[in-house]
Amino acid sequence: MIFYESFYEACKDLPDSERLAVYDAILGYGCEGKLPEGLTGTGKAIFTICKPLMDANAERKANGAKGGRPRKNEIPVMSSKCVNFTPSGTNWDDVAAEIMAAQK
Asked: What are φ and ψ of residue 12, in 5° steps?
C-alpha cells in the first residue's frame, strides 16, 4: 500500500479523533481491504477521494505480480551469406555495396 503525502496533507488539520478515524480507514482498506464504517462528513469525503488511488495501486501491484509483458525475441538472425563476409577494402561505401551484393 502506498500512503501518499496528499493523504497526510488532507488530514493534518482535522481534529485528532477524526484524523485517527481517517487514518484507520485508509490503512484498514489498504492493508486488509476493509471498507470503513462510521465515517461521516470530512472524513468520509477524504476517504472517498483516497480510495480510487489505493484501488489503482492495488491493481498495478496485482498486474506486476503476473510478470509483465513477455520478452521480445532479441536474438538477431544473421544471413548465411554474411557469416563469412570479409570486406575487400576500407572505403565504407564500397563495403556497404559488397554487403548488399552478397545478400542478393
From this structure: -60, -25
* CA 43 to each of CA 10, 46, 57, 93, 94: distance values in angstroms, whole numbers, following the listed order: 9, 5, 21, 72, 75
Reported pTM: 0.59
Residue 18's pLDDT is 94
Residues of the chain with pLDDT under 50: none
Q: Is the distance from CB of 25 to CB of 1 less than 8 angstroms? A: no
CA distance 37 to 40: 9
* Cβ-contact 26, 7 below 8 angstroms: yes
CB crowding 37-47: b at 16 or more within 10 Å, else e: eebeebbeebb
What's the sign of the alpha-carbon dihedral 35, 38, 42, 45?
Answer: positive
pLDDT value, residue 67:
76
What are the residue boundaries of the structural domains of the chain, listed by start?
5-64, 73-104
- pLDDT value for 27: 93
